[in-house]
Amino acid sequence: MLNCIDNSGAAVVECISVLKRKSAARIGDRIIVVVQKQRNFGPEASTANTGIANKVRRGDVRHAVIVRSRKEVERPDGSYVKFGDNACVLINKSGDPIGTRLNGIVAAELQKRSWSKILSLAPMHL
């Protein structure tokens, strides 16, 4: 189970498959997820008035990229980085993020894994 940190409309997703890897997924890996819980934008947020719309629904199968993980990751300088939760960003088949904003920090390991579009949307990377 992962938190979804973009504004696509998903709040919690479940990983069902890891692409191009036989082992567990790491930061920067592309995975296939099922949306388990939708984000609630409140009663005042309707698609006609504010433009905020859920782009995904509960039960949708989508692709995602892992941006934070609880499992520690060793960096080239010998230090380790570890986050408090597992988080992902939903993407389409071509690799572009579905949402237009990200809430929270992402790992800097995404840069060497060629996810620069996600890094540019993030408010901070660690």
From TrEMBL:
GO terms for cellular component: mitochondrial large ribosomal subunit. Pfam families: Ribosomal_L14. NCBIfam families: rplN_bact. InterPro entries: Ribosomal_uL14 (IPR000218), Ribosomal_uL14_bac-type (IPR005745), Ribosomal_uL14_CS (IPR019972), Ribosomal_uL14_sf (IPR036853). Component of the mitochondrial ribosome (mitoribosome), a dedicated translation machinery responsible for the synthesis of mitochondrial genome-encoded proteins, including at least some of the essential transmembrane subunits of the mitochondrial respiratory chain. The mitoribosomes are attached to the mitochondrial inner membrane and translation products are cotranslationally integrated into the membrane. GO terms for molecular function: large ribosomal subunit rRNA binding; structural constituent of ribosome. Keywords: Ribonucleoprotein, Ribosomal protein. This is Large ribosomal subunit protein uL14m. Belongs to the universal ribosomal protein uL14 family. GO terms for biological process: translation. Gene3D superfamilies: Ribosomal protein L14. The keyword Cell cycle does not apply.
